[in-house]
Specification:
The structure holds two protein chains of two kinds. Chain A has one domain. Chain A is an all-alpha fold. By secondary structure, chain B is an alpha/beta fold. Chain B is 37% helix and 24% strand. In chain B, strand 1 and strand 2 form a beta hairpin. Chain B is globular. The N and C termini of chain B lie far apart (39 Å). Classes of the chains: A mainly alpha, B alpha/beta.
Chain lengths: 260, 250
């Protein structure tokens, strides 16, 4: 076999084209689903069902990860702050990190694992078993019926879950700081309130809404265009999680750079 | 509702699947489309129900070329079509009752109790009773087909399309489904298009038969025309022989 240097460029070019196609597909899915939000019929039941699935049913996993994140964060920061006697900063630093970064990002990643993969698998199965074709032949727009409720619900529920994560994380760190590290509880609360701005929380929630859109659009896009039976559905679910997780981290960087 | 297909062509990449199909589906009659696997039957059906757009050609329904219609206008036409998919395509997150009720809920203003009446009536037409609360996963293949048919006729369509309705069923169930297709057709007077490679079933239900080969219609005629033809391609297909002009694609 002869070595063709041009093959490297062909490979990179082909991968780049695929990436652009995927991005275009994902963005166009988002635009379509958003546009159909304002077109009747409005199916309230579907929105509520998705909100329950994405929000209510994710709350336990978010509470669990939030509590432990807050606790471990308090523990870790205490080592550093103790060196120069600044333990009173444990509360504010935990609260700020949770509100600005950890709350939205970790909530986004947890929900991606649970919801993004489920959306891709569900829509993928519907695609390969012709259920999406069936919707179409019943004169029902599958994007409006399947994707729009998922995207909107996800955009609404992710900030809600982030509030939950922030709140339980701060309680976890309070618990750690007061009962294990011996800090004064009142001072912990007062310092935290003094140092954390509402703006920090709001921007964190805005990030969460963007992550919500990413999770639902990527999950739905991957499922909706799944092919080749069970293997294709499995691949769609895996890719949905990988693409969403990476996109959340990339989007987080740009949102932080832009908004703070 | 008569459907006129004129010069329909479709390729996927370099693979040309339909090479100029000319076919008339007569109003109020059953037309069976037969042919080898991969001859373009399913692709043809997907064009009729608007899931694919042709590269060239027309499909005329009610005087309008449906391949040129916008999504919204096409939505009006497709409501008159009922489709029974190969694997029934029942919504597996809904019960049997909800599946049959689905098109009624979406497209009629009927009250929930009236919808349930219609659901029971349609299920009775396909010979099912008391299955409304079951989920598709709890049904046998034959029952799924029947529920699929009940859902397809829920809105009293003028055209019924069956994509391989008896594939994967035992001979007795296949004949039951054939009878169902015959009875539904007689009862509702609909135009039926059936895709099949089940020869006895085809002769039983068809008023007209069209055989596709390499993306074209090789023979269109009545069951008797098919019985009497000397066309080697058609004869080989009807006689279930591996030897002859028809070859299995490697």
């Amino acid at each position: 076999m002869t070595f063709r240097p041009i093959a490297i460029f062909e490979y990179i070019g082909a991968r780049f084209t695929t990436l652009l196609e995927e991005l275009g597909g994902i963005f166009s899915t988002f635009l379509q689903s958003a546009g159909l939000l304002f077109v009747p019929p409005f199916r309230m039941r579907l929105f509520l069902k998705q909100m329950e699935f994405i929000g209510v049913e994710s709350s336990f996993i978010v509470l669990l990860t939030g509590a432990f994140t807050g606790m471990v964060f308090a523990l870790q920061t205490s080592y550093a702050f103790r060196l120069f006697g600044a333990e009173n900063l444990i509360g504010p630093s935990v609260a700020l990190s949770l509100a600005r970064e950890l709350g939205p990002v970790l909530t986004g990643l947890m929900v991606t694992g649970r919801v993004g993969s489920a959306m891709a698998a569900e829509l993928g199965t519907m695609k390969v078993t012709e259920q999406i074709d069936a919707l179409y032949t019943m004169s029902i727009n599958p994007v409006q019926y399947l994707i729009t409720p998922r995207v909107l619900s996800s955009i609404i529920m992710l900030p809600m879950l982030t509030i939950l994560f922030d709140f339980i994380g701060i309680i976890g760190s309070y618990f750690m700081a007061v009962f294990f590290l011996g800090l004064n509880g009142n001072r912990f609360i007062n310092d935290t309130i003094y140092m954390v701005d509402l703006k920090d929380v709001y921007i964190g929630l805005l990030k969460a809404a963007v992550f919500g859109a990413i999770i639902a659009v990527v999950g739905c896009y991957k499922g909706y265009f799944a092919e080749k039976g069970a293997e294709g559905v499995g691949k769609a679910a895996t890719q949905a999680v990988v693409i969403s997780s990476v996109s959340i981290l990339i989007a987080d960087y740009f949102l932080t750079a832009l908004l703070f | 509702m008569q459907i006129d297909i004129k010069g329909l062509k479709k390729s996927f990449g370099t693979n040309s699947v339909l090479n100029g199909i000319d076919l008339t589906i007569e109003d109020g009659k059953t037309t069976v489309i037969v042919g080898q696997t991969g001859c373009g039957k399913s692709v043809l059906i997907k064009h009729i129900i608007g899931l694919l757009r042709p590269d060239a050609g027309q499909i005329i329904v009610n005087g309008a070329d449906i391949t040129k219609l916008k999504r919204k206008e096409f939505g009006g036409i497709i409501k008159n079509f009922g489709v029974l998919f190969q694997n029934s395509a029942l919504f597996d997150s809904m019960t049997v009752g909800e599946n049959v009720a689905f098109p009624l809920r979406e497209h009629t203003g009927l009250s929930p109790s009236k919808i349930m009446d219609v659901v029971r009536e349609k299920l009775a037409i396909v010979g099912l009773k008391g299955v409304e609360q079951l989920y598709p996963a709890e049904l046998s293949g034959g029952m799924k087909k029947r529920v699929g048919l009940a859902r397809a006729i829920a809105l009293d369509p003028q055209v019924l399309i069956f994509d391989e309705p008896t594939t994967g069923l035992d001979p007795v169930m296949s004949d039951t489904i054939d009878n169902l297709i015959l009875n539904t057709q007689k009862r509702l007077g609909v135009t039926s298009i059936v895709i099949s490679h089940d020869i006895p079933g085809t002769f039983k239900i068809a008023r007209w038969i069209a055989m596709l080969y390499k993306g074209k219609v090789v023979l269109y005629g009545s069951p008797d025309d098919f019985r009497n033809t000397q066309d080697p391609i058609v004869r080989q297909f009807l006689e279930r022989r591996a030897e002859g002009p028809l070859q299995v694609e490697a």
